[in-house]
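Title: Comparing notes on inverse folding

I've been comparing how different people in this forum approach sequence design from structure. To keep things fair, I'm posting one structure and asking everyone to reply with a full sequence. Here's the target:
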């Protein structure tokens, strides 16, 4: 990926639309990126929108969708969401007098579908939710949420940032209207990628500079010059994922690491959220009895293991509901981790907890 980015900066530093070769080259890179993203997400290339990152795309697309919304219209978000999927709606609600309501999760952190059904109403315009929690790894049944949203006449709007690092995406299978993810979560460049259902995008008035073309469809929602070097990096990322067997290979492998971890951690480690690999990705939020989270992160960093300690993990609603004091440690496995690394991590957690007595 790094080579593809560097090569593009060296050999194709141009903008779209000119007749000279470097401009033709960035055109090819963009077309390939739309095609790669369409394969990743299961949509058509003209339904792909590139942006700076998920949060920026979410602010842009939510404002675009809401141009037709009226005071009193409702947006549902979920208690599992990262604030990148929440703040855009709160700010819109502030500007346009909309109502944002939070769909609860159960005690085990699964989305509460009874609460979703209770909160859906004829005023609901959007049901926005994270497909997987970045804090605790819980997966939401996206197909079921999308179905209920559509039955109520609302748009189904998915934050797939965390999910996309661990699981395959098919926007048609779940019937999403909008889905946003961030390639940096799956070994790609710092970039945001969105899908918008063609009929939905076509019904929106874009915020764009007027001479910029209206076609292909998705590009009308991307403002200004695209980061072509990052798009080249994104293409290399998709090639890389293909080269290791794609998600057919990644999912069972990562799950085996998650099982190995859960099966061997000591009782002195509290894992918040789902206790097994059922219904989750291998991302774990935990505390070690008697050891402050910041100290766990520090000790692991000293052993070359990169984990963070944080309070909310940007999941402010979930933070209130999980009820740990101050901070917790989040750690997770991805396809390049090895079973030996899982064992080394567990050994370090055991050592820290033994030391705490
Ligand atoms: C679930 C989830 N949503 C949204 C975001 C924000 O993504 P970005 O940094 O691309 O704006 C993150 C980032 O960690 C995330 O994990």
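Reply #1:
Here's my take.
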């Amino acid at each position: 990926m790094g080579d593809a980015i560097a090569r593009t900066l060296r050999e194709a530093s141009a903008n779209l639309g000119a007749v000279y070769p470097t401009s033709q080259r960035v055109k090819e890179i963009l077309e390939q990126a739309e095609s790669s993203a369409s394969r990743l997400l299961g949509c058509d290339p003209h339904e792909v929108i590139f942006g700076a990152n998920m949060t920026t795309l979410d602010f842009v697309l939510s404002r675009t969708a809401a141009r037709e919304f009226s005071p009193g219209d409702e947006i549902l978000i979920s208690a599992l969401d990262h604030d990148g999927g929440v703040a855009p709606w709160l700010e819109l609600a502030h500007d346009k007098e909309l109502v944002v309501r939070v769909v609860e999760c159960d005690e085990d952190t699964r989305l509460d579908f009874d609460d979703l059904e209770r909160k859906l109403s004829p005023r609901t315009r959007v049901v926005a939710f994270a497909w997987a929690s970045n804090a605790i790894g819980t997966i939401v049944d996206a197909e079921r949420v999308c179905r209920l949203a559509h039955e109520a006449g609302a748009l189904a709007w998915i934050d797939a940032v965390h999910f996309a690092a661990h699981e395959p995406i098919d926007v048609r299978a779940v019937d999403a209207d909008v889905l946003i993810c961030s390639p940096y979560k799956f070994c790609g460049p710092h970039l945001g990628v969105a899908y918008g259902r063609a009929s939905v995008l076509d019904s929106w008035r874009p915020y764009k500079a007027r001479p910029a073309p209206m076609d292909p469809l998705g590009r009308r929602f991307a403002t200004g010059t695209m980061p072509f070097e990052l798009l080249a990096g994104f293409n290399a990322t998709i090639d890389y994922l293909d080269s290791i067997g794609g998600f057919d290979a990644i999912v069972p492998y990562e799950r085996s690491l998650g099982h190995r971890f859960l099966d061997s951690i000591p009782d002195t480690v509290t894992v918040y959220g789902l206790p097994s690999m059922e219904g989750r990705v291998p991302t774990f939020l935990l505390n070690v009895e008697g050891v402050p989270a910041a100290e766990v992160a520090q000790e692991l960093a000293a052993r070359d293991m990169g984990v963070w300690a944080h309070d909310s993990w940007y999941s402010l609603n979930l933070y209130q509901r999980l009820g740990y004091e101050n901070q917790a440690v989040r750690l997770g496995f991805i396809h390049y981790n090895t079973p030996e690394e899982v064992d080394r991590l567990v050994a370090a957690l055991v050592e820290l907890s033994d030391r705490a007595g």
